Amino acid sequence: MKDLTTYYELSQEQIEFYEKNRFIKLKNVFDAETLEFYNKIISEQVEKMNTVTSKVEERDTYGKAFLQLFNLWRENETVKEFVFSKRLAKIAADLMQVEGVRMYHDQALFKEGGGGITPWHADQYYWPLSSDKTITAWIPLQAVALEMGPLEFSAGSHKIVEGRDLKIGDDSEKLIGEKLRVTDFEHVIEPFDLGEISFHSGWVFHRAGANVTDQVRKVMTVIYMDKNMILQKPTNKNQEVDWHTWCPGANIGEVIDTPLNPVLY
């Protein structure tokens, strides 16, 4: 698939938009043929790896938000082709204005029909990483209407420190939401066209609405970090778990360079 390897050229205006807002949505990153092919492969892999058997309404807020499967690239060579896309990795490097990026981990986020909200949160609460040079590619495998729960952003909210110590849940939705309502940061809620993907930084606050349709909102994500990222001493139990799960063998105070964290660009 040529879309995986050809470069997507960003304008200076797009790079500056990301620098200011710490998120950006980019149209026509992948064509319909590419997405149709990998939608099928990724969906089959999610079905194979998924162990959740309870009904949506029986789960807690986090469980209702999505089915979450990690590091599909280690389980399926075709998924690995997609996750290791030079096209995606170069966009990540260009937006963060770094020389190169390496993998933190991938994850599939499939919000089932009838699935609940994804509460307000900042991803980097979970990550034992020493700088904010982190970015997540959020890649819908189909067009996402508002009714399906597309990702929403509080533009520029990476400047807010309050709320960074909250894990995803009812408290983060309430407390971060209240804080954002009394600020001037724009709340961006938009559908995603087919082939449109977003990139957001580790500290920008974001959420997603409920999926009120009978279709699954299928999204693949890849989390990148500066290739020179240093492992910091974990500041909470979730970061401790992330260290040993996604960066096994990495040492505090040193560059994260393990078999699970290859340089992708």
Automatic annotation (TrEMBL):
Gene3D superfamilies: q2cbj1_9rhob like domain (2.60.120.620). SUPFAM superfamilies: Clavaminate synthase-like. The keyword Transmembrane helix does not apply. InterPro entries: Phytyl_CoA_dOase-like. Pfam families: PhyH. Keywords: Dioxygenase, Oxidoreductase. GO terms for molecular function: dioxygenase activity. It comes from the Bacteria. This is Phytanoyl-CoA dioxygenase family protein. It comes from Arcicella rigui.
